[in-house]
């Protein structure tokens, strides 16, 4: 009877958590501005790293007279922003009629224009307000920076134009590799140009299939690249852009952070603490049992919330990260089996208690190992900063030190008990 009530209560908790998960939803966006500078192929580039150079410059300085026009979400702002002439880009980019190009504000001052032909050749023009530094647009498989390819453009201190493809191999600056990438650029050279307060990056790529819903990375920095190595971005975002409908779905960065925080707290802190209590504090009977059960149940709830939030992220991002997702599901199954073990725990004098102990201990250890492994994998795949790596590394080191100290203390206590003389003396013969 007590067992059926416990199962009923546990089922109600799971149903409430599932309803909470259904209510989680993603969010939306905004944009901006325009005037002129022309470019042509640079045949006299001393460092041989530029594809284009400035040939004419508009003498009116829009940054000095404050002539930046900001687009709003309304039709008037969108028309003013997207209806500007692009002929200054030259052929083939300037030859495409603005009526044929799809134009959409995408993030902050970033505006995306594109035109896709029947042979899947797409012309892409990214515009943004520019002062110094660099501006970039990346194409990702899963909304993550790692493994994506980006087109980045800037004007250096000498006024020379630069535009290059980069392969984002890792989060460190040295892992952002110039002249590498997987964007299928065609033989038409990419172009970067200034038009008043806006920088324009234009390039063509031939894709295997018409682009539909595609994760796009956007970033900018105010510091110039050094020797073609990009400086750290001032700001960045990842969005899902539907090229078939010109619609933007923001990838809520806070959801990714919350997913990581819940995973680290649940699998990196609370569940290991519960396992430590069960292993090293059994001499505090029955307190250790209630602490172990309560702590592990709390860790399970947080781990379940992390998985549900991960499913929400997977659906919104369509992220192809099978290893992280597969390990997460595997660990969730093991944790559910551990919760079931709590309700199916036989009495101490039962013949099955030995097998139950074996099952409970080893399934718990396997779940903790793969949970920690998945946290590390998630931090790596998300391209998280050093603060995440240092924070989890410190937590992991603290847990290992605690286990070593408690294991040594437990061994000493057992040796002390085994070395004590027997409490009862034999009667003399």
UniProtKB/TrEMBL annotation:
InterPro entries registered for this protein in UniProt: Cyt_b561/ferric_Rdtase_TM, DOH_DOMON, DOMON_domain
Organism annotation: Durio zibethinus (Durian)
Keyword Cytoplasm: no
Signal sequence, renumbered to the chain: 1-32
Every DOMON domain range: 108-223
A cellular-component GO term for this protein: membrane
Keyword set, alphabetical order: Electron transport, Membrane, Signal, Transmembrane, Transmembrane helix, Transport
Domain Cytochrome b561 positions: 225-415
SMART domains: B561, DoH
Protein name as annotated: Cytochrome b561 and DOMON domain-containing protein At3g61750-like
Spans through the membrane: 260-281, 288-314, 326-345, 366-384, 390-408
Subcellular location field: Membrane
Superkingdom, taxonomy of origin: Eukaryota
Gene3D superfamilies: 1.20.120.1770
Biological classification of the source: Eukaryota, Viridiplantae, Streptophyta, Embryophyta, Tracheophyta
């Amino acid at each position: 009877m007590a067992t059926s009530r416990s199962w009923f209560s546990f089922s109600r908790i799971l149903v409430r958590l599932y309803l909470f998960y259904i209510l989680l939803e993603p969010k939306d966006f905004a944009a901006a501005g325009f005037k002129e500078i022309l470019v042509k192929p640079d045949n006299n580039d001393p460092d041989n790293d530029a594809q284009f150079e400035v040939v004419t410059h508009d003498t009116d300085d829009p940054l000095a007279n404050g002539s930046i026009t900001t687009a709003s979400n309304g039709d008037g702002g969108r028309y003013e922003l997207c209806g500007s002439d692009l002929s200054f880009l030259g052929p083939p980019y300037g030859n495409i009629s603005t009526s044929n190009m799809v134009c959409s504000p995408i993030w902050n001052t970033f505006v995306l224009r594109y035109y896709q032909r029947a042979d899947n050749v797409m012309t892409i023009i990214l515009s943004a307000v520019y002062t110094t530094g660099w501006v970039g647009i990346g194409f990702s498989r899963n909304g993550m920076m790692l493994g994506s390819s980006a087109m980045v453009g800037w004007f250096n201190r000498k006024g020379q134009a630069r535009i290059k493809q980069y392969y984002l191999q890792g989060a460190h600056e040295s892992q952002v590799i110039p002249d590498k990438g997987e964007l299928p650029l065609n033989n038409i050279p990419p172009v970067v140009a200034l038009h008043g307060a806006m920088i324009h990056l234009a390039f063509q790529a031939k894709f295997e299939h018409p682009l539909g819903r595609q994760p796009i990375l956007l970033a900018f920095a105010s510091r110039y690249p050094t020797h073609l190595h990009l400086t750290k971005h001032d700001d960045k975002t990842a969005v899902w852009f539907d090229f078939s409908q010109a619609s933007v779905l923001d990838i809520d960065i806070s959801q990714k952070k919350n997913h990581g925080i819940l995973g680290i707290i649940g699998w990196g802190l609370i569940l290991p603490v519960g396992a430590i209590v069960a292993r090293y504090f059994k001499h505090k009977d029955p307190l250790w049992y209630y602490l172990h059960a309560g702590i592990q149940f709390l860790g399970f709830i947080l781990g379940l919330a992390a998985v549900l939030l991960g499913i929400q992220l997977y659906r919104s991002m369509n992220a192809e990260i099978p290893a992280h997702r597969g390990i997460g599901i595997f660990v969730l199954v093991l944790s559910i089996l551990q919760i079931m073990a709590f309700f199916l725990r036989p009495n101490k004098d039962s013949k099955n208690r030995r097998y139950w102990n074996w099952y409970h201990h080893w399934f718990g250890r396997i779940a903790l190992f793969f949970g920690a492994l998945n946290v590390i994998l998630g931090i790596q795949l998300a391209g998280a900063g050093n603060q995440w790596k240092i924070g989890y590394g410190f937590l992991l080191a603290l847990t290992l030190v605690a286990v070593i100290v408690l294991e040594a203390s437990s061994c000493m206590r057992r040796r002390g008990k085994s070395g004590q003389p027997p409490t009862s003396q034999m009667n003399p013969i």
